[in-house]
Design a protein that fits this description.
globular
């Protein structure tokens, strides 16, 4: 039987709350991944239409994502989405209104 190495997930583990928010706000219930490694990108966890997902992100986070966002490690995207939202002058708490 082949042996599989599980990818590291310490960065994702540190962003569990941000990831849970993303899954709840942006993905459909049947799209939520079971495991996301530190190397995973949006392309690894989402198989639908890129434009539809970008629209969902824009609606929830107020951030327009592009192809480069789909190709970066997902944990880095979560950090960027949070940082962009925190920068918004109308959203000083980082909570979506």
């Amino acid at each position: 039987m082949p042996e599989f190495n599980k990818s590291d997930s310490k960065e994702m583990d540190a962003r569990r709350t941000l990831a849970s928010e993303f899954y709840a706000a942006v993905l459909e219930e049947d799209e939520v991944p079971l495991f996301v490694s530190d190397e995973s990108t949006l392309y690894d966890i989402f198989a639908g239409d890129d434009q539809a997902l970008a629209a969902r992100c824009a609606q929830h986070y107020g951030v327009v994502i592009s192809r480069g966002h789909f190709e970066m490690p997902f944990w880095k995207l979560l950090d960027q989405l949070q940082a962009e939202r925190d920068r918004e002058p109308n959203n000083q708490t980082g909570v979506d209104h």
